[in-house]
Amino acid sequence: MALIPFDDRDGTIWYDGKLVPWRDAKLHVLTHGLHYGSAVFEGERVYNGKVFELTAHSQRLIDSAHLLDIQVPWSLAEIDRATIETIKANNITEGYVRPILWRGSEMLAVAAQATKPHLAIACWVWPDYYTKEKRLQGIKLGMADYRRPAPDTAPVKAKAAGLYMICTLSKHKAEREGFDDALMLDYRGFLAECTGANLFLIQNGEVHTPEASGFLAGITRKTVIALALKRGLKVVERQIMPNELDSTEEVFITGTAAEITPVNEIAGVKFQVGTITRGLIEDYEALVRGK
């Protein structure tokens, strides 16, 4: 199926306080956010016409902006309302929402105190990130060359555009090698996350997930931990060495786009799509759809 470029679509985007035609939502080529990565964003899912964990996403957008020293002129409630307004304007019942906040074009230098912050919110119909077949059988992960940066080298708790450059490079390499995604280590050599999703391992009937010290602990990750605890499963957040994959029964990744996706292989190590993973997938689907 041919890809439709995002600048060649119709619809409505919320842009700096008002709804504008999709094709008119533009910015100047000398925008600070483009040249210096001074932008933060969110990825949100719409189920049955409602954004799952909308306020948590809007708050993280604000928090991420503050970590990049961007003053946000919109309140949490205003961002929530703008998101809902955009979804309704585009008649989205099952889809994806992308809010993005960036520094404007008033200055083009490392220092950017005089730049004006801008906020846009777009949404569109969103199919499954992975096909149904992939989600039943599990995906294959390669190992990334790049590591997640240390907390004292970058604002790792921000969902910042610039932090995703190494993710793009790692995903491209993985796909060229026949994998679906790449597993990244943290700055110390422990397991961290995939290029856009958090990681979970099942060991001896327990749920283990890497300690989020050098990467973003996702909203879906938090939701899945709560679901696992509700099932009576033990959840352990800790530093996990790569050689522990050999003693792991099940693996899955979590994220707004990936939801809960099983993994059947990491760099040649095989896993089953087991009962714990399948049970959590059922619980998550019921939760997000209000069943």
Describe this structure in words.
The protein is of the alpha+beta class and 291 residues long. The protein has two domains: 12-125, Aminotransferase class 4, branched-chain amino acid transferase, N-terminal domain (D-amino Acid Aminotransferase, Chain A, domain 1), CATH 3.30.470; 132-288, D-amino Acid Aminotransferase, subunit A, domain 2 (D-amino Acid Aminotransferase, Chain A, domain 2, Alpha-Beta Barrel). Helix content is 26%, strand content 27%. The protein has seven helices and 16 strands. The chain has helices at 32-36, 54-67, 76-89, 132-137, 165-176, 219-230, 275-288, and strands spanning 12-15, 18-21, 39-41, 44-47, 50-51, 95-103, 117-125, 139-143, 181-185, 191-194, 198-203, 206-210, 235-238, 250-255, 259-266, 269-270. Strands 8, 9, 10, 11, 12, 13, 14, 15 and 16 form a nine-stranded mixed β-sheet that branches. α6 (219-230) links the parallel β12 (206-210) and β13 (235-238). α2 crosses α3. The longest helix is centred in the first third of the chain and has 14 residues, at 54-67. It is globular and about 55 Å long. The mean pLDDT is 95.
